[in-house]
């Protein structure tokens, strides 16, 4: 048998793979930080052999409570991913699976590769509705690309959407793909109505270095990008620095930051109740957004989520708090599960890339509801 990780986002430490029923692995930390939880590896030579795979340091993961009710994903072709029996016991994560082919991949969540990222950019540009601009370079020299969609006129609302500040949260880029595919569909009436009101600025992968390196939460310098928004630097967090500079150039009327949550098995949003500039108008826009989102997607709910910040207690180093406070706009962090959505479970696939993509498509409806409320020429719904 052989275990390998020398591919995009591959990550695991091999302790012993001589016996199929006692394969011992460790979670590998981010390249320049101590966060660990993401894994992605290829197992060869175990076709039709019952395998027992143990991660001996799962109790040291960034979110050990995330293992409760969690099932790992597997694939033979890296296109079709399915859940495999997984349990957490005595500080170890244990996967038990009998591969039906000599080559099988296991991962923490369905990956979204850098090649897929580049293909997404190409397809978006090919629509004829999207312009791609280069804001700068990551610490390892990858492009920080911005997709601009709309008429770019002064009267347009400015909608900013960023995804995957935390690179292991690959569902965020699946979400971005769904959003972009629908927004760039000439025949979609919701998309057409939105582009009459707003220009969209989309960064589908804020952390391409971390994604390629197989990191969970940090970039190549070890920076958690979602703690860099007050004082980003070109040296440590250029991804945030250049995006923030562009935001100040364009302005922001609505902001979404797309993430995945390791622990909570739900889709939910977190707002800006704790920022100094939070207002009754923002609260009303939040209510409108959530009502429209629940109507658009049964996967979204508003009963379970993070505890709301007390007034003045928000962490302005975080993107949603910084942008919402700085621009006085509706700003939300959207979270999807690594596990399954307990409100609408799927035993075979759990939460996956396609469900994230569909959620990205559905987000256009609540965005349209808010834009109609904000745009002076649209009138109230």
Automatic annotation (TrEMBL):
Query: Which positions are catalytic residues?
Result: 335
Q: Which cofactor does it need?
A: Zn(2+)
Which CDD domains did the record assign?
M14_PaCCP-like
Q: Which domain of life is it from?
A: Bacteria
Q: Does the keyword Hydrolase apply?
A: yes
Q: Name one GO molecular function term.
A: carboxypeptidase activity
**Peptidase M14 domain span:** 110-374
Q: SMART domains, alphabetically?
A: Zn_pept
Record keywords:
Carboxypeptidase, Hydrolase, Protease
Identify the SUPFAM superfamilies for this entry: Zn-dependent exopeptidases (SSF53187)
Membrane-crossing residues?
none
Q: Which Pfam families match?
A: Pepdidase_M14_N (PF18027), Peptidase_M14 (PF00246)
For this chain, the family text in UniProt reads:
Belongs to the peptidase M14 family.
Q: What name is this protein filed under?
A: M14-type cytosolic carboxypeptidase
Q: Which organism is it from?
A: Kingella pumchi
């Amino acid at each position: 048998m052989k275990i390998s990780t020398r591919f995009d986002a591959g990550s695991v430490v091999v302790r012993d793979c001589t016996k199929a029923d006692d394969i011992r692995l460790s979670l590998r930390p981010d390249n320049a930080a101590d966060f660990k939880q993401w894994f992605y590896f290829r197992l060869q030579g175990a076709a039709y052999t019952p395998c027992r795979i143990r991660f001996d340091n799962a109790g040291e993961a960034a979110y050990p409570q995330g293992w409760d009710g969690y099932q790992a994903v597997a694939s033979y072709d890296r296109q079709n991913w399915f859940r495999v029996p997984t349990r957490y016991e005595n500080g170890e994560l244990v996967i038990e699976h009998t591969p039906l082919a000599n080559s099988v991949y296991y991962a923490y969540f369905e990956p979204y590769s850098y090649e897929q990222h580049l293909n997404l950019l190409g397809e978006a540009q090919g629509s004829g509705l999207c312009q791609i601009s280069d804001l700068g370079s990551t610490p390892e020299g990858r492009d920080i690309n911005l997709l601009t969609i709309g008429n770019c006129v002064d009267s347009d609302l400015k909608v900013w959407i960023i995804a995957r500040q935390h690179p292991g949260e690959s569902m965020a880029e699946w979400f971005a793909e769904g959003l972009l595919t629908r927004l760039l569909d000439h025949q979609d009436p919701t998309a057409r109505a939105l582009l009459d009101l707003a220009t969209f600025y989309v960064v589908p992968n804020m952390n391409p270095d971390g994604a390629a390196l197989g990191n969970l939460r940090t970039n190549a310098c070890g920076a958690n990008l979602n703690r860099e928004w007050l004082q980003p630097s070109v040296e440590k967090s250029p991804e945030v620095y250049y995006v923030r500079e562009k935001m100040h150039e364009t302005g922001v009327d609505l902001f979404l930051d797309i993430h995945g949550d390791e622990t909570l098995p739900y889709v939910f949003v977190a707002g800006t109740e704790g920022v100094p500039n939070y207002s009754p108008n923002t609260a009303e826009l939040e209510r409108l957004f959530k009502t429209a989102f629940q109507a658009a997607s049964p996967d979204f709910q508003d009963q379970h989520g993070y505890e709301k910040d007390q007034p003045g207690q928000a962490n302005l180093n975080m993107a949603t708090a910084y942008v919402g406070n700085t621009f006085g706009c509706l700003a939300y962090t959207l979270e999807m599960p690594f596990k399954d959505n307990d409100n609408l479970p799927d035993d075979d696939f759990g939460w996956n890339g396609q469900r994230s993509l569909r959620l990205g498509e559905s987000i256009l409806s609540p965005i349209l509801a808010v834009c109609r409320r904000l745009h002076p020429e649209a009138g109230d719904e």
